[in-house]
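Technical appendix A lists one of the benchmark inputs used to test multi-chain prediction within the project. The record comprises two sequence entries:
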Amino acid sequence: MIKLNPKLSQKLSYTILFLATVLAVVPVVVIIFIIIKNGASAITWEFLTSMPKDGMRGGGILPAILGTLSIVTCAIAITLPIGVCAAIYLSEYAKNNLLTRIVKLAIVNLAGVPSVVYGLFGLAIFVMFLKLGVSIIAGALTLSIMELPVIITTSRSALNSVPYSFREASLSLGVSRWQTVRYIVLPNAIPGILTGAILSISRISGETATILFTAAAFSVPHLPHSVLDQVMTLPYHLYIISTQIPNMPENVIFGTALVLLLMVLTMSFVAIVTRIYFRKRRKW
Amino acid sequence: MSKIEIKKFNLYYADFHALKNININIEEKRITAMIGPSGCGKSTLLRSINRINDTIENVYTSGEINVSGENIYGDEIDVDALRRNVGMVFQRPNPFPISIYENVAFGLKVNRIALNKNIIDETVERSLKAVLLWNDIKDKLRKSALNLTLEQQQRLCIARLIAVAPHVILLDEPCSSLDPVATQKIEELVIQLKDRYTIVVVTHNMQQAARISHNTAFMFLGELIEFDKTEKIFTNPSKRETGDYVSGRFG
């Protein structure tokens, strides 16, 4: 074994650790830089608010923006209430028996299923079996199932972070278990639950494989007007214009990516601000 | 007259036999202290009297605890109603992270004991006066309860209980996170409250038991070794273990 002198080995390990950290940050910065550099010139008011023209080579991406927003809104509206209820059951009521352990294990494993598998599942169940067709609602249901484990996990950790002594104090006043959850635990867990929800929104905004089979269309000449409509979505539109359409102006491709990136980053930023805001108010 | 009768009470945490055949009669409107070394089961016994132990998994009990003549481990019992009658104050003050006023009003509102704002206001004032906190904080009722000192927080926790009008107050080492001056003040408060409530206090502090209680139970390894007038326990105990413990030879 080579013996380095302690000062040198200290310096060496410090350098390696520092480089690893820098390496983690570099790609993010580079990605953002390249996308902005190549795409910023495409971003105009018209690009954001008009329909595509000339076989998508011109015009705007409004239908894709609205499509993504409507799918994501529907998905979170379905998954958040169900996920929070399940989390409350698991952390406040469920006894630690075999069934609960299986449920918890299932939740952890569901989070690891590749999203394309969810897409196929959604195609089989929602699109074909329930005959919802390729539509906003089919895509939203599929995404909501995919996000459910994440919502349950983040909500559970938010609920568990509420001090146990609050529950005891409330119960010892003769307040029932449900009322304790409703008036003490839940209000104090909401910041954590919200943060998890917003991060989920940002994650599913960029989701492509899941909605490929269940909601997304190559091109729709009108804006969505019902949840049973097929829609264009930003990630899928990006895929199409970068691979399927010849002579696509590069700045439109990067401009679309930039819009998607901004949507996702804005969401994450909102999540961070929410968390900071509530953390400041909380004092235990 | 006894308010609480504990008869042949056993409690298990899974396989661990934590309370062994406990029999005690606790007198109404008196202060009863429970002393003993750590892990002797005194807190467990206290927490059995309002069934707050129910929230822990794998707890099994046998025997009876009668509060006002009703077996609280019977099938018909409404646990929430029981806890309204038998309130509890914990080791660390645990006010909710809301305003002082809302802390005291919480039990009233949620239990729908009072919904009229004037009645709630009156009860909040009366409860805070009963714990001698009113004069210090009457101008900052809307401030967060977490800004109070620990002693004030513990008083607030007692006021919060008093507001829902329990008959019995259980105190689980209520002064263990307080300094000596604050401890003395809380003790004075507890003594004042005994005229209206049956009080059971678990304490590590033998002097505290001697200062404030009428009766004292000495517990050791899950058993009730001796239960008698406090004076007798501290001056002339009948069991050798009791004598050894109160004289500081172990524990």
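The first strand of chain B starts at residue 2 and ends at 13. Chain B has a mean pLDDT of 92. Comparable benchmark entries are summarised in Table A2.
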